[in-house]
Amino acid sequence: MADHFFSEDPASADVRRTVQARIWDRDYEFITASGVFSRDRLDLGTSILLREVRPSGSLRTILDLGAGYGPIACALAVELPEADVWAVDVNNRALELTGLNAAAAGVAERVHAVQPDDVPDDVVFDELWSNPAIHIGKPELHKMLLRWFGRLKPGGVAWMVVGKNLGGDSLQRWLTEQGYPCERVASSKGFRILKATATNRGGSPS
Ligand SMILES: C[S@@+](CC[C@H](N)C(=O)[O-])C[C@H]1O[C@@H](n2cnc3c(N)ncnc32)[C@H](O)[C@@H]1O
């Protein structure tokens, strides 16, 4: 199998490097590695999401869906000292890096970097943040989103960044059709920033 960044265990040598990023007026140095998404810099889409959306102070439980090396999860945990952040990914190397980056940011106790199946069944989320793995293909993407949107609390919100040419607009329509009203809150450099809200009309995981 090709060594994509979303492999469970990337076959490529685990060559570490660091990436500098400024998120919500704080400087971070993240450890990244080969076999992990955007190992050379904070991804442009992710940086636009973090530039356009700022978390609010009262959030308790947050999901970073497809955490990679953890920039979103770590910054959310730093910004929200009361919050627990579940950072899920299928790539074990990414999960290890998220753990290291959370420790470096002083938030290791509140960032839970785990495989999707290892999130306890009773955990539900106030918010979901994601630069989702579009490359897994539409059927898998839809299945993944319905699975996790189904665990948003009523009124909970999902913030996502999706490239326009990677189907950002059709994803917005599809989420609305599924019972998660979805609006475009910003558009920049070919990326759509989407906000979807969990209503009691939300679909169940399929
Ligand atoms: C576009 S990357 C974003 C990574 C990171 N959030 C960032 O902004 O740099 C999407 C991530 O989703 C992960 N992924 C792929 N399939 C997944 C799935 N079914 N469940 C959770 N994560 C998945 C990939 O391994 C990858 O790390």
Automatic annotation (TrEMBL):
Listed CDD domains: AdoMet_MTases (cd02440)
Pfam family, one: MTS
Gene3D superfamilies: Vaccinia Virus protein VP39 (3.40.50.150)
Segments forming domain Methyltransferase small: 28-195
Matching InterPro entries: RsmC/RlmG, SAM-dependent_MTases_sf, Small_mtfrase_dom
Origin superkingdom: Bacteria
One GO BP annotation of this record: methylation
Transmembrane regions: none
Record keywords: Methyltransferase, Transferase
Single GO MF annotation: S-adenosylmethionine-dependent methyltransferase activity
PANTHER family per UniProt: RIBOSOMAL RNA SMALL SUBUNIT METHYLTRANSFERASE C (PTHR47816)
Protein name: 16S rRNA G1207 methylase RsmC
Organism from which the protein derives: Kribbella italica
